Amino acid sequence: MIETQGLTKHFKDVRAVDGIDLTVAPGELVALLGPNGAGKSTTLRMLTTLIPPTSGTARVAGFDVVRHQRQVRLRIGYIGQGNGAGHSQRGRDELISQGRAYGLGVKDARARAATLIDSLGLAEVADRRVSSLSGGQRRRLDIAMGLIHAPDLLFLDEPSTGLDPQNRANLQEHILDLRAEHETTIVLTTHYLDEADSMAERVIVIDHGRIIADDSPARLKAEHVGDRIILGFDAETEAARATTTLAAYDPAREGARLTIATQGAPRQLPGLLDDLRAAGHPAAEAEVIRPTLDDVFLKLTGRSLREGGAAETRELVEV
Amino acid sequence: MTTLITDTTTVFSRELRPLLRDPFTIIFSMVQPLVFLGLFAPLLPDNSLQWFVPGIIVMSCLFACSMTGSNLLFEIQTGSHERMLVTPLRRPALLIGRALKEIVPMFAQAALIVAVCVPFGFRFEWAGAVVGLIILAAFCIGLGALSYTLALASKNQEWMFWTVQQTLLFPLLLLAGVLLPIENGPGWLQALAKGNPLSYVVDAERSLFNGEIFTSATLYGLIAAAAVGALGLWAGVRAMRRSD
Ligand SMILES: Nc1ncnc2c1ncn2[C@@H]1O[C@H](COP(=O)(O)OP(=O)(O)OP(=O)(O)O)[C@@H](O)[C@H]1O
Ligand SMILES: [Mg+2]
Prior knowledge:
The structure holds two protein chains of two kinds. Chain A is an alpha/beta fold. Helices cover 40% and strands 25% of the residues of chain A.
């Protein structure tokens, strides 16, 4: 569905996207993850024909994004990072004209708009001026517009930014449904790590315009961070003896606590506790820490994605 | 299936819809030049209405279509222009549709102006007026597309749009003899006017409103308008392709 080679975009002296090789198969759901300014939006904007690459090539839905722009546009949907609906327009009007732009007849466009208004919970606001809608309502309208022609390939740039948890969950469900029903290929960017984790079966981590990791969330976490088991003991002496008992796991001791780095911790823990009890120094407490994608990012770049609360600052700016 | 015409209709009706929902602003802007005319016409020598009215019509169309890019500035910022660019809408349709949204209300206004002036001795010929408006539309589509291009070039720095628009618009108007005749001006002014495509359009409008259709003025006006139209569309499509 998508195939890029050395895709690059420089803005004057900013290397926004710096040689991306990416292949996305039909039906995949891919999340692009990266800090502010990583080049996520720029990548999507090249793939959606909005800006020409500085160098490199990209084929989207079977067509070159520079030479066959119209063919690409006919086959994709795009929900940008900004608001797609004109502020002086009304939501329903915008949905209908969006449908017309994709070649739907007036009747079909109306019907489709009504369906989407319903399913995205916009019934009460669809006939109001867009400028009077709240940030979250506008975002849902954007999403409805991107879905109007039920494209085979959908790009979403931070679709859930600005939505409250309930609407975010709704949206995620919507996207997953879309995929289940129409086998839509989906590429989205997000700042919400849990979203990437729970929705995408493939996460691409981007930093400074380059892909630094590309795998399923589970494998990324297993490969780059792994699980940790933390065991607490009543006394340091017991902890010291436990270190010998569990030598095979290579624990690190800090006072009365042991930390074990491992894979598949939840399966190991019960056996481990049994071993300790049998050896006569049972653990007083036990905890399994599973890695998050943020840990993966931290490991790969030495920085945390959470720093500065990127997603939150943007919400303030947009409202 | 879509065509250039359906695409243009889509863009045009999207642009026009907010106006129709709130017609007060249109009505207000349509009455404005009537007031202008009402204050100006009594100062004119006898019979010059015939010369003056086509000029007013050209002027108000010009003002309107040079603003094509101003709404766009905001839509570029919010992201709705980007959203339109990703759709398969044909690029010229984006330009023409937006320019037409400015032009069509002005044509309604032209009809109003003519209707008001006829009782005061303004004579006009239907066929000529229709040809005149077609020529004017071609010119205005070009100018609207250039205004669109200017908006793309000045995104993130709105002042540039307004500065360039104002700086170019007034000389364009004055050097075309829209409000005051050029014939009595100095040689250099007349030479500049000769290089101004709008001069030919205005001359054509004047003779067409008089009912003189098959004249060289019509031909030159048509050529000038078509050239500006083509230039505008070419520049606009190119800017959309290249804009970051
Ligand atoms: N039109 C532009 N002109 C100049 N520089 C740009 C332009 N668009 C993006 N950039 C720069 O390119 C880099 C990548 O920007 P991009 O918008 O792709 O980041 P992003 O990953 O989407 O970030 P965010 O999470 O903040 O949306 C940034 O340094 C940005 O300032
Ligand atoms: Mg972005």
